Amino acid sequence: MFKGVVTDIFFDLDHTLWDFDKNSALTFEQILQAQNIVVNLPDFLEVYVRLNQEYWKLYREERITKSELRYGRLKRSFDALGYPISDNTIDLLAQEYIAHLSSYNNLFPNTIEILEYLKPNYRLHIVTNGFQEIQEKKLRNADILDYFDQVVNSEMAGVKKPNPKIFNLALEKAGVSALNSLMIGDNLEADILGAQAVGFHTLHFNPQDEPLHEYCEIIQDLSEIKNYL
């Protein structure tokens, strides 16, 4: 479908290559135990994952700050479980979470396989809304940093996906036209619609079986990228 058209492929990182949910769960298991916070981990994660998505949407829309995101998602999670916790402990957990998250390096199935397949014929890049201080650590600790020519994050761009400025910055740094670029990501709004607005080709990675759509082709396993390139 994209053969002969695409020269550069831009990947989202969290929830696309780097298994955020699995690594986040392992991080919480570690830091909650270290702080002697006794909660049922599956119950905590069920609440936290939903709230984290809500807070990231607000953050993408510039409606809250990074600090508000880090505090609010934890505070509301403990409140929902009826677990009393001080603001000082929440601040400590927020710091510990960021400090330890990138030490886990679980990737989605077939990540290395598809990067090995693509690297000889395409230039590969990352476009991420994640925080600058940990995104490169994630890539390095997962041993995939060297696959990518450019790593562009929202703090570098001053805006977050789906804002066109971050996609245009990525194109500028890569030295390529959107017409020759493919964006692959898991978030329909931020990755797919945001990239399409700038002129990218797009491929939606949808391992969670979110509702189908007709904006672009959808894959559920990264190995399916071979069907298009």
Strand count, sense and barrel status of the largest sheet are: 6 strands, parallel
> What class, by secondary structure content?
alpha/beta
* Inertia-based shape: elongated
- Overall mean confidence score, pLDDT: 96
Uncertain stretches: none
CATH superfamily assignment of the largest domain? HAD superfamily/HAD-like
CATH architecture of the largest domain: 3-Layer(aba) Sandwich
- Helicity, as a percent range: 40-55%
Head-to-tail CA distance between termini: 7 Å
**Cα radius of gyration in angstroms:** 18 Å
Strand order of the largest sheet: 3-2-1-4-5-6
Q: How many β-strands, per DSSP?
A: 6
Structure description:
By secondary structure, the chain is of the alpha/beta class. The protein has 2 domains: 8-18 and 105-227, HAD superfamily/HAD-like (Rossmann fold), CATH 3.40.50.1000; 20-101, DNA polymerase, domain 1 (Orthogonal Bundle), CATH 1.10.150.240. Helices cover 48% and strands 12% of the residues. It has a 6-stranded parallel β-sheet, sandwiched between helices. α2 (41-60) packs antiparallel against α3 and α3 crosses α4. It is elongated and about 60 Å long. This is Noncanonical pyrimidine nucleotidase, YjjG family. GO terms for molecular function: 5'-nucleotidase activity. It comes from Poritiphilus flavus.
